[in-house]
Amino acid sequence: MKIAVCEDISEEAEWLCEVIYRWSVENEKAVEITSYADAASFSFALEDILFDVLFLDIRMPGEDGVTLAKRLRKQAYDLSIVFVTGEREYIMEGYEVEAVNYLLKPLEEEKVFQCLNRICEKSRKQEPFIILKTEDITVKLLQREIYLVEVFGHRLVYVTEKGSFEVVSTMKQARQELREEWFVTCHRGVLVNLLYVDFVGKNSLLLSDDRRDFRREVPVSRRMYGEVNQAFIRFYR
Predict the structure, then answer these.
(1) CATH class assigned to 129-236
(2) Pick the CATH number of 2-126 from 3.40.50.720, 3.40.50.1950, 1.10.3720.10, 3.40.50.2300
(3) Is-above-0.70 flag for pTM?
(4) I need a surface site. Which of 34, 136, 212, 225 has the fewest CB within 10 A?
(5) Is residue 208 within a helix (H) or strand (E), and if so which, with residue range?
(6) Which tens digits make up the pLDDT trace of 166-197?
(7) Residues sharing a CB contact under 8 Å with residue 160, sequence separation 6 or more, in sequence order
């Protein structure tokens, strides 16, 4: 989860970043937190980074938070906006831009935690998932929980955060069910989730998830290297 804090008072921005980090540790969430002092610097970063959450101060030098939020919605940016301010008069503005929450200064850690929990709950309900039916169980998996899919004969093995699941299926069917922009074939019979790719080499790539202590080197075929590398670059841009 990529989180931006747009706040012109450095002490308050630093405190909020620390609170978000503590929340991520307590909830085992992988987050990247970046702080911006004004709307201009945030807008510049937005050209290269797709943020999931924006904690946005309303009173800032230059473009104010409300104007920035309206511009983001007009440009169809689908990120969760949380207004942060010391003034109640802007509450109705939050409804107009579909803000997730409106936090009044001085901020309370508990309120920030509640806000982030709400965002995660909303995200979980909207996240793509698949249903796998093994010989023993039927399991619902969020697609972000899948590290890779491998072919073994007439079966597929899904290696995930929750363990490995073997099902009778084909790679063609798996690709149809999984998000095309997340998953790429790197070798014959191997489909990897770009969410967990650390680097792509000409002969192999590395999958890792520090939260689950998962690391695995996966072969990359010479024929597929170019496609995998381009998919990796597109994904993180």
Answers:
(1) mainly beta
(2) 3.40.50.2300
(3) no
(4) 136
(5) strand 204-209
(6) 999 999 999 999 988 899 999 999 999 999 99
(7) 141, 145, 146, 147
